[in-house]
Write a structure and sequence with these properties.
It is a single chain. It contains six helices and 19 strands. It is an alpha+beta fold and 234 residues long. It folds into three domains: 54 residues, RNA-binding S4 domain (Structural Genomics Hypothetical 15.5 Kd Protein In mrcA-pckA Intergenic Region, Chain A); 89 residues, Alpha-Beta Plaits (2-Layer Sandwich), CATH 3.30.70.580; 75 residues, Alpha-Beta Plaits (2-Layer Sandwich). Strands 7, 10, 11, 12, 15, 16, 17, 18 and 19 form a nine-stranded mixed β-sheet that branches. A four-stranded antiparallel β-sheet has the order 3-2-5-6, with no helix packed on it. Strand 5 and strand 6 form a beta hairpin. The two termini are 30 Å apart. The structure holds uracil.
């Protein structure tokens, strides 16, 4: 049981004080009865709460998928650059959203934006070894030496990387699968072999793949199936 004003405000549409006004103006009903007390305790899972004729759609957390374009930083605010939150549809503006993980400003592809801190923590926790798959384009050909090196663990200035897989998909393109996520990791790994990454695009996190119909810059809620895939990762 929770206070009705808290339950309604948790939907992110109205603030606590706006909810009080709504209740005062008799615009809220619980199981068909107009309510008068904003501290009324209600079981949100069992009651039908209606605001202005619209039943509340209970959703504890929001899980969004973004096909990140270049030029946006993976942060909630930034003084100099646009943030990925600017691409979130208006309807989620009342939520306390943040990106679960980072992609560089010039990296594109799959990004999860959520208000579920536990899930985000789990996706990012090094112990969980969540696989992230990237399409990479280089300014030099992908070599056997790189493939072997990635497999045995590239040595970077902050330590040896966990084994990663690199497969060749074209003369200067490949697919990299990482189980960790250090700062500029892929760029630094190729840098060890004299290669510069010219394009980097995240294709998948665990079983969750970027759908081909999600255009760059588009952001939408995960389907139930996709959410299951994301939860299976951890
Ligand atoms: N590795 C990088 O170098 N950059 C990214 O954005 C992701 C992985």
């Amino acid at each position: 049981m929770e206070r009705i004003d808290k339950i309604i405000a948790s939907q992110g549409v109205y603030s606590r004080s706006e909810v009080k006004t709504l209740i005062k103006k008799k615009r809220v009903t619980v199981d068909g009865e107009v309510i008068k007390a904003y501290d009324l305790k209600v079981d949100a899972a069992k009651s039908l709460i209606v605001v202005d004729g619209k039943p509340l759609k209970f959703q504890k957390n929001v899980y969004l998928m973004l096909n990140k374009p270049k030029g946006y930083v993976s942060a909630t605010e930034d003084r100099d650059h646009k943030t990925v939150l600017e691409l979130v549809p208006e309807e989620f503006s009342g939520r306390d959203l943040f990106p679960a993980g980072r992609l560089d400003r010039d990296t594109t592809g799959l990004m999860i934006i959520t208000d579920d801190g536990v899930l985000a923590h789990n996706i990012l926790a090094p112990k969980k070894h969540v696989q992230k798959i990237y399409h990479v384009e280089l300014d030099v050909p992908v070599t056997e030496e790189m493939i072997q090196g990635f497999e045995s663990g590239v040595e970077l200035n902050d330590g040896v990387c966990k084994p990663a897989s690199l497969t060749i998909t074209g003369e200067k393109t490949g697919t990299v699968t990482l189980k960790e996520g250090r700062y500029h990791q892929i760029k630094r790994m190729f840098g060890c072999y004299g290669g510069k990454v010219t394009e980097l695009h995240r294709l998948a996190m665990g079983n969750l793949h970027l759908p081909s119909d999600l255009a760059e810059g588009q952001c939408r809620e995960l389907t139930e199936e996709e959410l299951k895939q994301l939860q299976q990762i951890i």
